[in-house]
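Continuing the series of single-chain predictions for the mutant panel. This is the parent chain; the variants come on the following pages.
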Amino acid sequence: MIKFPVIERQVLDLSRPRVMGILNVTPDSFYDGGKYLSETKVIERIRQIVEEGADIIDVGACSTRPGAAGVDEKEEMARLEPAVELIRKYYPNMLVSIDTYRAKIAEEINTCLGPVIVNDISGGTMDSRMFETVARMKVPYILMHIQGIPRTMQRNPVYGNVVEEVKLFFKERITRLNELGFDNLILDPGFGFGKTAEHNFQLMEALDTFQELGYPVLSGISRKGMIWKTLDITPAEALNGTTVLNTVSLMKGAQLLRVHDVKEAVEAVKLFNCIHQFARF
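Parent structure:
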């Protein structure tokens, strides 16, 4: 039985797949860095994500692409807060997620701007205060696997068995969170975060087995290197490959797709649902 997350005392129903649209307010993200730095552009992007049918907006203010240099806490907050405020202003009922590994940022946004999902690419490894912070706030927490840190994670990722090692990571982190009385979780295997293309495809093939851990699974493969490097194209040309792997993710049981291209992902979900209603259980 999969336990669905709760936000503001409302269950986030993931009995059917949902789509999370990406809003990057960064100058250096791998695909859309620098596109949404003015207020006008941010509002346009928010409107696009909502009108194309996303269920959640994920706001990122610190690029985590391979090789990315970090930004300090003050700069991250200065980018993140205005974007979340604009979502609250224009679409107050829209679910918001913030892409941060910093506990202080997570706490300040939740305290000042209302409950948001915390999407932590480090799975609590980059800020020791994160677990106790989300446990205290009781907001949904996306627990992602990463090997290393963004600046160096792709230099030489090594695993004995990537699927089993990612599962072990999840089991250990889930145990720690459960000991704090917290189980408001979504799991993300972290495609592209300290993994070769081969590791990524092994994880994709085994994605359905992560359901055994009892929590919803997020798939975030949008325009990533596992697509464009494999096909010898650019990130800008990787929409078709993204749709293919989003569809595979759905067939493998993913409950949440994190994407740049909302319209195409929503269409994939709709078609998947048309087929899935006839599934033999």
